[in-house]
Amino acid sequence: MAHSNFSGYAFLLAFLLTIPLANYFIANVGTVCPPDSPCLIPVAPGLLAPSGVIWAGLALVLRDLVQRRLGLGWSVAAVLAGAALSYAISPALATASAVAFLISELVDLAVYTPLQRRDLVLAVAASTVVGLVADTIAFLSIAFGSLEHFEGQIVGKLWMVILALPILFWIRNRDTRLGQTSDPQSLGASA
Q1: pTM to 2 decimal places
Q2: Which residues pair with 42 in a beta bridge?
Q3: Which of 28, 75, 163, 167 has most Cβ atoms within 10 angstroms of its Cβ?
Q4: Is the dihedral of CA 172, 58, 165, 121 positive or negative?
Q5: Distances from the Cα of 166 to the Cαs of 120, 133, 137, 159, 163, in angstroms?
Q6: Using alpha carbons only, what angle is made at residue 176 by residues 171 and 180, rounded to the nearest 5 degrees?
Q7: Domains, the chain, ranges and CATH?
Q8: What whole-number distance in Å separates Cα of residue 183 and Cα of residue 69?
Q9: pLDDT 10s digits, 86-128
Q10: pLDDT at position 2, please?
């Protein structure tokens, strides 16, 4: 199996794993877990966010890498599978999680696709910012009926994007060095 396909499937698996992890964290992991509310973590001084924010931010980056390695069709299939998985895993937050996930990933996909051939890092950064805002508004509105943790959600997701940037630079530089493009049909011969 070609390296790009192997890494694409690894990104796909990691992307799908972020969904149960995000739902698990929201219900069980945080510095504060108020009754009938999401568990919260600090994302900046004086700023809390639902703890699933860590995994939601990473999902936005991984979805872009799935498209880069496997193509748009795999990426759309991953988004749809992720929405179904989100719905199946978190009955308490099922609708909010699934709808927010689907909206944010499709918005993210729409921004990433035209930009990715020009600049991977710009495409991931721009699409992730748009996706995380859409996800935050949809999730908080549907799940909790308010945007109380909006700023915390945005900051938490941005932290994950910032932490991913060195890896994205490395991937882009490695792809360039190996003569790989962002088009999955032209990937594959490199090890």
Answers
A1: 0.73
A2: 48
A3: 75
A4: positive
A5: 12, 22, 28, 13, 7
A6: 90
A7: 3-185 (1.10.1760)
A8: 8
A9: 777 776 676 787 788 788 778 878 888 888 878 877 887 788 7
A10: 55
